[in-house]
Amino acid sequence: MQLSIALPCYNEAENIVDAVRDVALWLRSRGHQGEVIVVDDGSRDASSLVLQGLKVEFPELRVVTHAKNLGYGAAVRDGLDAATTEWIGFMDSDRQFLAEDFDKLVALTTQAPFITGRRRHRADPFMRKVNAKIFGILTWLILGVWIRDVNCAMKLLKRSIWQQVRPRVATGGLFNAEVFYRLKRAGIVWKQVDVRHFPRKAGAQTGAGIHVIFTALKEMLVLRMKN
Predict the structure, then answer these.
(1) Residue 3: in which H helix or E strand, if any?
(2) Element of type H or E holding 104
(3) pLDDT for position 126
(4) Per-residue 3-state assignment (H helix, E strand, C coil) for 170-192
(5) Is 44 exposed, middle or buried (CB count within 10 Å of its CB: 0-12, 13-18, 19+)?
(6) Which residues of 150-165 are buried (b: 16+ CB within 10 A; e: fewer)?
(7) Which residue from 32, 35, 120, 131 puts its CA 20 to 30 A from 214's CA?
(8) Which is nearest to 112 in space by CA: 187, 4, 191, 185?
(9) What's the CA gap between 179 and 183, in Å, rounded?
(10) Dihedral of CA 116/120/124/127: which sign?
(11) What CA–CA distance (Å, rounded) separates 102 from 42?
C-alpha cells in the first residue's frame, strides 16, 4: 500500500521524535511504501532542529515549514497537500495516538475512500471533553453534520478525493468539521472505527485555548453563509 501520513507539529520538541519514529517504523513493519510528512507550524521551541536531525535516521521523512503559526487546520491541510501517494492520512504528533492503530483504518479501505477513527475512551481533561461535546452540537446545529468524535486526529483518505473535501475556510479547529461537511455535500461514503487514545505526557495542549475556540466558531459561521 502506498501511504503518506502527515503530522502537524507546533512546539512538540518533546514528542516529535517518538511520533516520527512511531509512524516510520509502522510503515516499514507493514511493508507500506510511503512517507512521513511533518508540518512545523511556526514552532518556537526546538522542533525544527530536532526534525533536521531525524532526517538522517528516517529518509522517508519530509518537513514542511511555516514561517509563522497558521493553525492546526492549515498544518494538516498543507501536509496532505504535500502527500504524493494513493492513500493519505494524518495523526497528531502529541503521542496520544499510536500508529499501529492505523491497521484498523487500513482494514476498511476496501469499503470506503475515507476512514476516520473514533476515540472510544478519550484520555483528555474533563473541560476539554465538555468543549468537544459543545462543539459537536454546534457543528450539527449550524452545519447539519453529526459525527461521533468529529475531531479524532486519525484519518485516512484516498488522495483522489482530497480536492473535493479539502477545507477552504478552516485554518484552525474547524478543519475536521469542514471535511465532513464537504464529504456530505459530495455524497462520499465514509467509515469509522474505534482507536485508542492516551494521556499527553509531554508538551502543552493548545486546542482548547479561547482563541482557537473563537476562531473555529467564526469559521463555522463563515462556512455556513458561503455554502
Answers:
(1) strand 2-9
(2) helix 102-106
(3) 72
(4) CCCCCHHHHHHHHHHHHCCCCEE
(5) exposed
(6) bbbbbbbbbbebbebb
(7) 120
(8) 191
(9) 6
(10) positive
(11) 27
In the chain, the amino acid numbered 118 is: R
Q: Cα(126)–Cα(132) distance, rounded to whole angstroms?
A: 10
How confident is the prediction along the chain (227 residues), in pLDDT tens digits per residue?
A: 999 999 999 999 999 999 999 999 999 999 999 999 999 999 999 999 999 999 989 999 999 999 999 999 999 999 999 999 999 999 999 999 999 999 999 999 999 999 999 998 887 777 777 777 888 888 888 888 888 899 999 999 999 999 999 999 988 888 999 999 999 999 999 999 999 999 988 866 665 556 667 777 788 788 888 76
Q: CA-CA distance, 65 to 120, in Å (whole number)?
A: 33
CA nearest to 122, candidates 79, 153, 78: 153
The answer to whether 9 and 21 are in contact (CB under 8 A) is no
28 secondary structure, DSSP code: H
Given a contact cutoff of 8 angstroms between Cβ atoms, the answer to whether 40 and 72 are in contact is no
pLDDT score recorded for residue 140: 86
Q: Are the CB atoms for 200 and 95 separated by under 8 Å?
A: yes
